[in-house]
Amino acid sequence: MSQTASALQPHRPAHASADDKTYTLAFEDNRLLPLLFGEHDEHLAIIEHRLGVAVTPRGNRVSIRGPEEAVETARAALLALYSRAGRGLDITRGEVDGAIRMVKAQHTQDPSEGAVRTRRKAVVARTPTQKTYIEAIRHHELVFGIGPAGTGKTYLAVACAAEALMNGEVDRIVLSRPAVEAGERLGFLPGDMKEKVDPYLRPLYDALYDMMPASLVTKGIAENQIEIAPLAFMRGRTLSSAFVILDEAQNTTPQQMKMFLTRLGEGSRMVVTGDPTQVDLPNNQQSGLADALTVLKSVKGVSQVHFKQADIVRHQLVGRIVGAYESAAKKTRSTK
Fold first, then answer.
1. Are residues 35 and 92 in contact, defined by beta-carbon separation less than 8 angstroms?
2. How confident is the prediction for the chain on average, in pLDDT?
3. What is the pTM assigned to this prediction?
4. 203 Cβ contact list (under 8 Å, min separation 6)
């Protein structure tokens, strides 16, 4: 059976206000509806809550009622999610929210087009900026992903790395972070060097395990196909045919950043992620990330993608928290 939905003619119920519109979608493949609607119709409830519309399922039909613009957004989001289900891709609460974001930004094409496909899942952009970021990584040797926490900078970079390794585009993945928080206290922590630095690299491990089966990650690390190491371990190396990611780059010095960027070898790609507002360097040292963004602004082959508060895809409260801190920072600057 075709995995498409036919749109019935919109109509206005007698009790609706002049500004309301009702649109009914008829979905042809009933097997996809549990995935589309979610458990206890939770996906439809998300659309109702986000857009202020009433979504009523009846069999293979869904009726959407509300303000015209909101109804059109809900319709386009449901069609995009239905297409995603038809491609065999999962639909989560986050995917529903992402479909709404993409439609609102007038990215009305199927969001699952251009998905990053890894061993465990297909990762789809949830905001227009995320889509731009994925495209930049695929077409540039060096990409800077800049913005607040929760925008998917690191997660999407690791997904692209896993996809490149799976497709044979690179021979290995190298993931790195500056262990600034450890500082001189590193020697006082128990265990060998790996045990000392692993806590600072845990977010990279988490993202990697989300993209690949644990057995493949373990095998890749054992065979040096996957390397996760602190930034200090990069000095003096040339990284060829590798997908290299530097996370939390705001905590590098300009010297460390230059050292890292010049590790780039033949057939390699680099992604550098960070949040310039979260610098943990001591004594007000200049951030290597801020320095690099200025120095490399016009260099061919380098792309800079800047995420905003609107791109935060974690819990909605995270976006409000970031917004509150940004507002407080602006007030502080205005009083100086």
1. no
2. 85
3. 0.71
4. 154, 177, 247
